[in-house]
């Protein structure tokens, strides 16, 4: 009985570790996609700014929607740290 309990405990611990690993991988993937989207948006704005000389300066410094959704603002974007797992 004790041996079975230990085996079940080990199996549950492995499953818990696997679930945590999957959660981390999913979060890293979502962050990577968000950063890629933000980079693409900024590059696209820079290209459009080159085409139109009279575009307002403030629009090139505005944040993309994915960054706004997680609370990154113009004031704190430099203090945020992102990691790509």
UniProtKB/TrEMBL annotation:
| One Pfam short name | FAM167
Superkingdom of source: Eukaryota
InterPro entries in the record, alphabetically?
Answer: FAM167, FAM167_domain
Alphabetized PANTHER family for the sequence:
PROTEIN FAM167A
Q: Write out the similarity annotation.
A: Belongs to the FAM167 (SEC) family.
**Protein name per Swiss-Prot or TrEMBL:** Family with sequence similarity 167 member A
Q: Could you read off the lineage of the organism from its UniProt record?
A: Eukaryota, Metazoa, Chordata, Craniata, Vertebrata
């Amino acid at each position: 009985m004790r041996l079975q309990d230990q085996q079940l405990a080990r199996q549950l611990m492995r499953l818990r570790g696997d679930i945590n690993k999957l959660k981390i991988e999913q979060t890293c993937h979502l962050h990577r996609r968000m950063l890629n989207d933000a980079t693409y948006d900024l590059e696209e704005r820079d290209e459009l700014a080159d085409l139109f000389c009279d575009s307002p300066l403030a629009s090139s410094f505005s944040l993309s929607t994915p960054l706004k959704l997680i609370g990154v603002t113009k004031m704190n974007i430099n203090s945020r740290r992102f990691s790509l797992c």
